[in-house]
Amino acid sequence: MFVPGLAMLPLAPSIGSPLDALKVISMIVLGFGFTMATTSYLVLAMRTAQGLVEEKVDEAPAPARGRKAVAAPATAAAPAKPFTEDTFKFLLQGTIVTGAISVAATRQSNEYATPLRTIFMFFGTVLTYVYGARLPSSFTKVVHPLVTSTAGTLLLTKLDSLLTGSNFEDVLRTYKAGSLSPSKTGAGDLLLFLLGPAVGCLAVPMYSRKKIMADNLLVVIAAMLCSSVGGLFGTAWYVRLLNISSKTMIRLSLLSRNVTTGLAI
């Protein structure tokens, strides 16, 4: 659901000079550290004052004299991949079939070319994410599946433009058209639409922990206020301090850096 925002970056307005881009990056990195540090230390201080934090010292029992310590088994089961092979094969077949139909419809100027391309790109986006998530953990620790999916989505867009003789940017614009009309909506619009229910579903795990939240209500409220107020006004102060010379729209968009995408939109 975060792929559409990343995939549309080639069409995004310029941030400004390279110096402005570095300023924005510094704001994101330092802002993340600022929000995490202030919120966590506030919570730790409050729980310490309430006597809820205890120092724990782990002391392993010393082996008896004349006995050698028995080493724990070094073998461990390999972690299961996040998606099944059947799921990957289904998405791969769906992408190939819908892609072939979409290209044929576009070349023939069929009236259903756009909806067919939407189905193809939806399959393609999910396929590339699943593929990225199933890569070795040594790779996914460095390259998140979001990056793999975004790159795969852009490659599929480029392939579509080459096979249909279209312009890459024109094809990319159909990925997120900003409309849910069946004749205009793109795969990115559908994914962003699903983001709303997904954010709403966060209420389920919160409700299942309602007793914990009620017992720590003061700490929860303090953490929320610290994170939101500090993140909002701290970001605004830092953007003004750096004097980012980009358009006002770019500067204002930075204020929502530490909220979920559904609320930021």
Which descriptors would you attach to this protein?
mainly alpha; 65% helix; globular
Can you walk me through this structure?
This protein is mostly helical and 265 residues long. It contains 13 helices and no strands. The chain has helices spanning 3-7, 18-49, 85-107, 113-133, 137-140, 145-164, 168-173, 187-200, 203-208, 210-215, 217-242, 248-253, 261-264. Helix 2 (18-49) runs antiparallel to helix 11. The longest helix has 32 residues, at 18-49. The radius of gyration is 25 Å and the shape is globular.
Biggest sheet features: none
Order of helices and strands: HHHHHHHHHHHHH
* Category by helix and strand content: mainly alpha
What general form does the structure show?
A: globular
Strand tally is: 0
**Please, how many helices?**
13
Q: Which stretches of 5+ consecutive residues score pLDDT under 50?
A: none
Q: Which whole number gives the mean pLDDT? A: 86
Tell me the radius of gyration: 25 Å
Q: Which bin fits the share of residues in helices?
A: 55-70%
Strand content: under 5%
Reconstruct the topology from this structure.
Blueprint: H1 3-7, H2 18-49, H3 85-107, H4 113-133, H5 137-140, H6 145-164, H7 168-173, H8 187-200, H9 203-208, H10 210-215, H11 217-242, H12 248-253, H13 261-264
